[in-house]
Amino acid sequence: MKRDLALRTLNMAIAIRRPPPGCVHHTDRGSRYCTHVYQKLLRNNGFKVPMSGEPNFHDNSAVESFFRVRIHNQ
Q: Which GO terms describe its molecular function (predicted)?
């Protein structure tokens, strides 16, 4: 995925959903999500960004497990 697509998608989500300040934006450490422009857009819109300081492929495991259980139980 290109950086521009990630930025356009985030801008669209903000415009349509109008997330409240403190909303958690959870991603992996993909280069498109770590750019200064993307992170600035998140900060300017009041998002919290839980991300480890260094690449760690286990970052998403707890969230993915939670949502997998929630989706399968519905």
A: nucleic acid binding
Nearest to 50 by CA among 31, 66, 29: 29
Q: Phi and psi at residue 38, in whole multiples of 5°?
A: -65, -45
Domain boundaries defined on the chain: 3-73
Tens-level pLDDT at each residue, the chain (74 residues) = 577 899 999 999 999 999 999 988 877 777 888 889 999 999 999 998 876 555 555 556 666 666 665 444 44
Residue 19 in contact with residue 49, Cβ under 8 Å?
no
Q: At what angle do helices 36-44 and 3-17 cross, to 10 degrees?
A: 10
